[in-house]
Specification:
The protein is α+β, with helices and mostly antiparallel strands. The chain is about 25% helix and about 40% strand. The strands form nine sheets. Strands 4, 5, 6, 32, 33, 34, 35, 36, 37 and 38 form a ten-stranded antiparallel beta sheet that branches. A five-stranded mixed beta sheet has the order 12-13-24-25-26, with helices on one face. Strands 16-17-20-21-22 form a five-stranded antiparallel beta sheet. The N and C termini lie close together (about 10 Å).
């Protein structure tokens, strides 16, 4: 039945009176000569009265159950729940933004965005939008924009959940020529492996990194198959090893402590040097290096301090050969010894030089090669003969590291001689050298050799400044301590770092086996430690999780582009790469000569590869290129949801009048057909 409007009443004066749709009175004169006025709202109602309205009885919603289920349905579809969820989401995002701006994005993700309750909040918003949409069923045509807009919101939320659950993001660092097929993730673990056992046991480091373990609140991990317990009693977000030198070692081991001072700025650098400890033999200061060397005897010291013979008199330099039996020292020309063995006087020994290098380094295969583009590192490779029989097949003497010899022969043979290499005039000098010489009877001398080959020397007095002509004017070196029996104690200490950030992470572990044996060790990030416990050896490693890509990336070249006239900050940087993947039939598929640069990533195998950063390496080595690699399975769903949302908004705001007309026409057809 259509709604019937009462007819207007006629007044005695020939006027028709009534009420308009806005409740206000109107009157229309029946006098043809009088002007006619029609209320616009009443005119619209009269027009709509022609179109019968939908029946007043609402159809039952098939999606809404009866009873308690219906009340749950109404709650999930309610506006009250929507306001509560959106308010909570707003406050949570404010808290996450504060954490991210005050601390780090990693902390914000750990405390807010990567938590289960945040995922639950997104799911509840999704359900609220879904049930609010179903509660309006059956949907009138005029609600088309409403339905499409809600569908777009649900698609966006679903895409975000898919990305969060199944997305992968990590980093890959490559040297030029290097190939890798895995990325490092942000999550990490600590692995324990018994030497000789192919199985590595591990536990996630998340609780270690965020759980604040301590001796009072340790974290215990029981590996029953391994018969071992790992107890975490401490964690440093960032750490470094600090040296403490003492003069009560078990054997003689000279060490010198020095400081570099500037007349206007005070102390600028300091450190310990020990000639018998390879890691503490020298310190590089850029334009100069500080080196400590121990002299074999008085003759060696006098030879080092004298200007003759000069290395410039020999093309390849010479070897100082000391006979262990009587201490005599003989000079052997390297160039001559390469042609034929040189006999050591009054002995049955001779020296044969096999090879000489001025810029030696170990390549990826572990082979010594000479590369003139690298910094100076002179060495000679020689053999020792006795009674014309070779007793030492391959000895290596470094000019910069005289105490760092390398034995390549099989077995152990005691050499009757000792050698020290003095490089020749063809050895390039990349910087000057300030040498601290330790002679017999604890004599201390200094020797300065400039990059031009000019030398000067003198005795060292503790606490007295020695000018450094190769450095900035006003700089000097002071030797203030000398230890005869030095030994170095290293302690791992925590470095100050912004909350939520991580540097060189380290965890203190206490290992216990079933027999009660105990051992303590620091597990440092990217460092492997070996522990002996109860006769067994265990390897401890702290590292990031890795994710295989399904293809390999090889870095062919890395380039920096600078602003014109500037060399400080690069304008951009880019990498030329080769991508190697495998087809189903086993054939290799290669994409070569691909350039990845800032804002121009590479898409391959479902991953997007970004050029994110680079690392400048010291001593002129090639730069390391850093790529950010991500797999986001929900990104296309998010794009689709954004499009649907925009379409729904346009229909809601601009298509509503058209939808009203369509509804009116549909109602009119129903009347014409059967009502």
């Amino acid at each position: 039945m259509s709604k019937q409007h009462p007819a207007p009443a006629a007044s005695p004066h020939g006027e028709v009176k009534g009420k308009g749709g806005n409740g206000k009175h109107y009157q229309a004169s029946q006098d043809p000569a009088a002007p006619q006025f029609q209320d616009p709202i009443q005119e619209q109602e009269d027009l709509l009265a022609v179109v019968p309205e939908e029946p007043a009885v609402r159809r039952r919603n098939p999606f809404r159950p009866s009873g308690f289920g219906g009340r749950v349905f109404d709650f999930l579809a309610s506006l009250r729940l929507a306001v509560l969820l959106l308010t909570t989401m707003g406050l949570v995002c404010i808290a996450g933004t504060i954490y991210e701006s005050s601390y780090t994005a990693r902390l914000a993700q750990r405390l807010v965005y990567r938590t289960p309750w945040f995922d639950f909040l997104i799911v509840m918003i999704f359900l609220n939008v879904l049930f609010a949409t179903l509660a309006r069923f059956p949907w009138r045509l005029i609600k088309t924009g409403f339905v499409i807009t809600h569908l777009g919101v649900m698609t966006l939320l679903f895409g975000a959940l898919v990305s969060h659950r199944y997305g992968v993001e990590g980093q890959m660092m490559l040297n030029e020529g290097e190939t890798r097929d895995r990325i490092q993730l942000s999550t990490s673990f600590i692995g324990i492996q018994k030497i000789g056992d192919p199985i590595r046991h591990r536990f996630d480091a998340v609780e270690v990194e965020w759980g604040h373990p301590s001796p009072e609140k340790p974290q215990v991990y029981d590996f029953k198959d391994l018969g071992l317990k790992a107890i975490v009693t401490g964690f440093f977000p960032d750490s470094e090893w600090v040296e403490a030198w003492k003069d009560n070692g078990p054997e003689e081991n000279p060490a010198i402590h020095f400081a570099i001072e500037n007349s206007g700025m005070g102390q600028m650098a300091e450190g310990w040097l020990a000639p018998n400890m390879p890691s503490s033999q020298s310190m590089n200061l850029g334009p100069a290096s500080i080196t400590a060397r121990e002299m074999l005897d008085q003759a060696h010291l006098e030879h080092e301090l004298s200007a003759v013979p000069s290395p410039a008199t020999s093309e390849l330099g010479f070897l100082l050969i000391k006979v262990k039996k009587d201490g005599r020292v003989q000079q052997v020309d390297v160039q001559q010894a390469m042609k034929a063995p040189v006999v050591i006087e009054n002995t049955s020994c001779s020296i044969k030089v096999l090879e000489q290098m001025n810029a030696a380094y170990l390549n990826e295969s572990g082979v010594l090669v000479n590369d003139p583009s690298r910094p100076s590192n002179p060495l000679v490779i020689y053999e020792v003969y006795q009674n014309n029989e070779r007793i030492l097949p391959r000895e290596i003497e470094y000019a910069n590291f005289p105490d760092f010899g390398m034995m390549h022969a099989q077995g152990e043979v005691e050499s009757p001689v000792e050698a020290t290499y003095i490089p020749g005039k063809n050895a390039k000098s990349s910087n000057a050298e300030f040498a601290l010489l330790i002679g017999p009877a604890d004599q201390l001398h200094w020797k300065v050799t400039t990059s031009a080959g000019e030398a000067s020397s003198g005795p060292i007095a503790l606490g007295k400044a020695i000018p450094m002509p190769m450095m900035t004017a006003g700089m000097s070196l002071v030797v203030d301590q000398f230890y005869k029996r030095a030994w170095r104690e290293e302690n791992l200490v925590q470095k100050p770092i912004k909350k939520g950030e991580f540097g060189t992470r380290a965890a203190r572990l206490e290992l216990q086996d079933q027999n009660g044996n105990q051992a303590q060790v620091w597990a440092e990030m990217y460092t492997s430690r070996e522990v002996v416990l109860g006769g067994n050896r265990y390897q401890i490693r702290y590292q990031n999780d890795e994710q295989p890509l399904g293809f390999a990336i090889q870095l062919k070249d890395f380039r920096l582009r600078h602003y014109p006239g500037g060399e400080v900050r690069p304008m951009s940087y880019e990498s030329d790469v080769k991508v190697i993947s495998q087809a189903e039939n086993g054939e290799s598929l290669v994409r070569d000569n691909i350039t990845i640069q800032m804002n121009e990533p590479l898409d391959h195998g479902g991953f997007r590869i970004f050029q994110s950063s680079y690392i400048d390496q010291p001593r002129g080595d090639p730069r390391i290129s850093i790529f950010s690699i991500a797999h986001d399975p929900g990104v296309n769903i998010i794009y689709l949801g954004s499009i649907i949302l925009c379409v729904g908004i346009v229909i809601m705001f601009y298509g509503k009048p058209y939808m009203k007309k369509l509804e009116s026409r549909r109602a009119q057809r129903k009347v014409e057909v059967g009502v």
